[in-house]
Records
---
Amino acid sequence: MVEDLVVAVAAAGSAGLVYLATAARVVKQYERGVLFRLGRVSGEVRSPGLNLIIPFVDRLQKVNMQIVTMPIPAQEGITRDNVTVRVDAVVYFRVIDATSALLKVEDYRFAVSQMAQTSLRSIIGKSDLDDLLSNREKLNEGLELMLDSPAVGWGIQVDRVEIKDVSLPDTMKRSMARQAEADRERRARIINADAELQASKKLAEAAQQMADTPAALQLRLLQTVMAVSAEKNSTLVLPIPVELLRFLERGAQPALPEQEREPAAHPDGGPYPA
């Protein structure tokens, strides 16, 4: 009798352990468990922790509630201004309704990926090349709206969509490089022309000022001479007025004695008296 009782208790304990092993389910903190009872949703979403189900009757399917980062493969399309481009992007989304994510769509990840690809091609066709290159924030918002509308019905919330890269044909890259170089050259010429105009105005004002004050012109000439003479191995040639040379020549001649000077002629033709 005792042996039979021990065997029964052991069998009951083993059955209890087997039941716990088959009935126990652990739901992680970032997951939610959707309970199916005989193939029907019981309407109960299990919280994180240890959960018990009825073996062979219930089935607990876990759904990840974390934000999913999904890259969108590069899509090739023609922009509104007839330029062929390849654009890739990334979409961030998360499940907000675990039951809808399992019941409304077969594979919500695949559905979001396909919807993102078609939406990206649609955005390419509606946009110009300049918008794809410089106005990405607006395009990102448009992509987010296009994805979020159908995703809400699947229990999905699209948090953000970002365009990663825009690939252009080599011919277009060379054309844009030539255009940018021409634009930079145009701006450089405009800046040089403005500088010449301002310099000419200042020179005209300086010339007018020097014309009104001749001494200023002489001072400016002296400053130029000093600046040029400061340079090494330089030869300076300055024009000297002829009047100045004649004045210097007269100053260099020796004075004649008084007796050697010829007497001045009288108006009547004779010399003055001594």
---
Amino acid sequence: MDARLTGSEVQRAAGGVLWRRSQTDGSTAEGIEIALVHRPRYDDWTLPKGKLNPGESDLAAALREIEEETGYTGAPGRHLGEISYMKPTDGEGRPKIVRYWEIGAKEGSFTPTEEVDDLRWLAPDSAACLLTQEADHGILDAFREQPVTTSVVLMVRHASAGSRAEWKGDDRIRPLDAKGRRQAAALVSLLRPWVIAEIVSADFVRCSQTVEPLGESIGVPVKEDPLFSELGYPGNEAQAAEFLRTLTKRESTICVCSQGDVIPDLLGGLADQDGLTTPPSPKGGGRSFKAKKGAVWAVCWSHGRLVGAENLGLPPIDD
């Protein structure tokens, strides 16, 4: 990101490439079509997007704006990148950043408004020809780099649980500390943009406690599995990888809570198998799926194949 486009004066917006299975008699080459919207104010064809509301996350804004402009609810997939530019104002330029996600269309129908008066579902090639803004082409290209997302694993590292060295009992029952409990509560809002169908946790107390508030909030029970713990994973790496891959074939969003010694090896091995370039290490010096305690990776899959990963970072809490 350009260093000039930072600070409180930045206008943030979000949107996405809304896609669905082809509805036409003759299927497109990709078997999908994407939605472009027409804005009469600018007389342009563009990807649906809009400004964030106060306190709203980028992804939540993308989903809301897509529904407002197209009439369709959606399921998040891969993060596709962002566009930064200077937006003209009253004689001065104001920096604006727009972030985009791949969004699978769910239910809905389009109704014209003053802001968006037309919507077209088009094959990606046709959409590329119709797009007005050159910057949108880069987002569409990023969308087309991988198959569409059919399932998402929200891989959570357990929240803060004090010091292992200071805990005198069985480490499997070491609970979250006060900070960890706040992180667990904050995960609910961080993960709200996804419709989570299943929650799986390592069979350590601090792992299950991390996702219990989320499960209670959405009415999904937490299932424990030792394969995702630092005791159950070593020696069973292939079994854990196959189990996770099996979960991703259900075409839904699944939350898995594991540990810092498991997540990088598990996801890194799967990425290697599927030929996905792993993300850069937060501290540099290589690439990895490392994460701080309480942080989340959104890992995207297409029919059991890993196609993308985004580090969602830590849930916001008051220290």
---
Amino acid sequence: MAGRAIMSRTNDLIRLYRILDRLEALSGGKRFLAQLAPSRTWPRRGVYFFFEPGETRKGSGHGERLVRVGTHALGAGARSTLHQRLRQHAGRSSGLGGNHRGSIFRLLVGEALIARGDCPECRSWGVKGDIGKAAEILMTQRIELAAAEAPIEAAVSEYIGRLPFLCLPVDDEPGPDSLRGYIERNAIALTSCLHEPMIDPPSRSWLGLCSGRDKVRRSGLWNQRHVEENYEPRFLDMLETAIERSIDS
């Protein structure tokens, strides 16, 4: 019984990557945050899939494995666009700065870079959702915190900027029944390594293994939500259909 379940999940992972290969072919290839195009060239809403050089699949075939899946504007009435969310992850359009308080992706990568010793210790990293409030709590000046965080923000931008990603346009309305949210949580659940045995485990040098977040280390993803959930195989049919519709529209 367990063997059949493992085989089924392996086959679903293989199918997921084949579907994403189709998306890559139809959309003209992977993109990079370091070369984020102007907003007018992007769909209003969508789902994004990040890969990582050096992180190769082991049990589901060949090629780079997924390391983060995400979307945006899931709450009813939310108005953020896909480009705005990607810009939050990328950092500033000029230079290598950024705001990790506006991007959990940046926050997680920065924590791991500090833990691995690639960046200096920073007592304000991840404190509060606003740098001004962080300065109040830590009883220091905002300008001092910004200066201490700057080299880490730059390192995060450089790291994330090298990760290739794919985007799937899905222009549905925000809300609990969003197709974008459905695809996101099921893709995360399927690729998470929290389900034994691990089919596509991270490499020993993957930065995420230095994270202080248990779910990041054990899932092999720069995600924390949905990593412990079970996936619904039918989401692959819906993903495939969404890709074909995005090309026809």
---
Amino acid sequence: MNTSVRGTAILALLLAALPAFAHDVVAPRAPIAVQMYSLRNAGSLDQQLKIVHDAGVGAVETVGTQGVSAAELKQLLDRYAIKAISSHVPLAELRRDLAGVVAFNRSIGNTTLVVPYLDAKDRPKDAAGWTALGQELGRISKQVRDEGMRLAYHNHDFELVDFNGRTGLDLLFAAAGPDLQTELDLAWVARAGYDPAVMLGKFRGRLFAVHAKDNAPKGQAEDEGGFAAVGQGMLDWNAILPAAADAGVQWYIIEHDQPRDPAKVIKTGADYLREHLTVIPPARAPR
């Protein structure tokens, strides 16, 4: 067989094999995660992670240590091919044992810590208090940055009280400096009377994630705290998703505070986001 014929034969064999190789190529997953708080009543930790896996989601945001050792948590995450992309850690814990928090999260492969909620005693009462809290979080942000991690802040509605034209959240982030990231909870933004799409633009460039959750129509789903699965409520996702992409949101974290059927809520939200994130033009896709 001459060189030309041999080359043609090899090329033909390679082309014939391409479809088989194509089946081995795994398409990149959409940047969707699940906040584990949504699954707290859905059985054991193993069962909860299985729900995430079965919904086709490959990432979670943990609630602290999830009540287990770092080694056990990492083993369970690996079992279901799930990555921990962030963890909700109370401010009190960050103040008390920052080194321990960093060590635990490093062990499970997580590099983002999130202040999830302020107890009533920790909530500033005035503009000066929000500024002081922002300065403290800025200092913690620098400390965790030196450890190869980052700090983010998750809002509810009480941060959006107005102080002479600036919300508590505005004051907090202005005082914290550029290291502090935001995890914007879209449903709570709407409940506070603000447009989530507009709010996203205010935090362009420092949006680690959004909590993708929805609000049911007024008077409905009262046994679920008035929340709804993503895309099944009152939020305008046709405006929110392009705004989120423009603002540089990195992760869309599905959450529901009081789901009647956690598995259904996670699957519904994941399906909705997968379908609608794909229609965002590539140039504006989440980074």
